[in-house]
Specification:
By secondary structure, this protein is mainly alpha-helical. The chain has helices spanning about 5-25, 30-45, 50-70, 75-85, 120-130, 135-160, 165-185, 190-200. It has one domain (about 5-95, about 105-200). The protein has 8 helices and no strands. Helix 1 (about 5-25) packs across helix 3 (about 50-70), helix 2 (about 30-45) packs antiparallel against helix 6 and helix 4 packs across helix 7 (about 165-185).
């Protein structure tokens, strides 16, 4: 894993370690389920005052989410940048001035800025400028609700196979990823360091590439 972690590096790391077992063992619903499971565990750790435990479980949530993105073969950075190019996509301001971000409809952001972040550390810095006053407890609850929205979008696409639904999961995935960036910022956690620590030797549990954890 490169020391300067880019979003494409994040996707490749998860693909190298978990791509084979994910494809062989897990359905899309499984990937969605495990992402929610670890988000709930992270919330429980927060309620218990265990910040490090919360960071660990949100990191695992991010890994399951990345596996889902890999399953559908789209560039997470591309769709996220189109929506969050140095501005909130709902109020088009930096910092964000939305009063109720959950009820807002996204606006057309116009031509993206040329200052695209080079790596995940820069992405965290940019998102921090857009959303500087985030509260981790509020974010965690919003995140669970948005996870339900994401799940619905994927299931709708699987049921109807319409291009417009695929475009919708791209948009929902970008919002979900940015919420994770905001959560890590609120926890004062560096995703790059966390992923180097967890995945430098392969799977963070069995330490193998590809992972062999769930084969009997």
């Amino acid at each position: 894993m490169p020391k300067e972690l880019k979003i494409k590096d994040l996707q490749k790391t998860i693909l190298d370690i978990y791509g084979i077992p994910d494809d062989q063992l897990y359905s899309v619903e499984d990937l969605l389920y495990y992402g929610q499971k670890f988000a709930l565990l992270a919330l429980k750790k927060l309620e218990d005052g265990d910040k490090e435990g919360a960071i660990l479980n949100y990191s695992i949530t991010l890994a399951w989410f990345t596996a889902l993105i890999n399953r559908y073969h789209f560039e997470l950075e591309k769709v996220t940048w189109k929506r969050y190019s140095f501005k909130c996509p709902f109020c088009l301001e930096i910092p964000c001035i939305c009063e109720n971000k959950e009820e807002q409809m996204a606006k057309k952001t116009g031509r993206p800025s040329s200052r695209r972040p080079k790596n995940i550390e820069n992405w965290q810095e940019m998102i921090k400028k857009i959303y500087p006053e985030d509260n981790i407890q509020e974010l965690s609850m919003v995140f669970l609700r948005k996870a339900d929205d994401l799940n619905y979008s994927y299931r709708l696409f699987l049921r109807e196979k319409l291009l417009k639904h695929f475009k919708e999961i791209e948009i929902k995935s970008a919002d979900y990823f940015v919420l994770l960036l905001r959560i890590f910022n609120a926890l004062e956690a560096d995703i790059t360091n966390q992923f180097h620590k967890m995945f430098k030797n392969g799977c963070h549990v069995c330490h193998k590439t590809p992972c062999e954890c769930n084969y009997k």
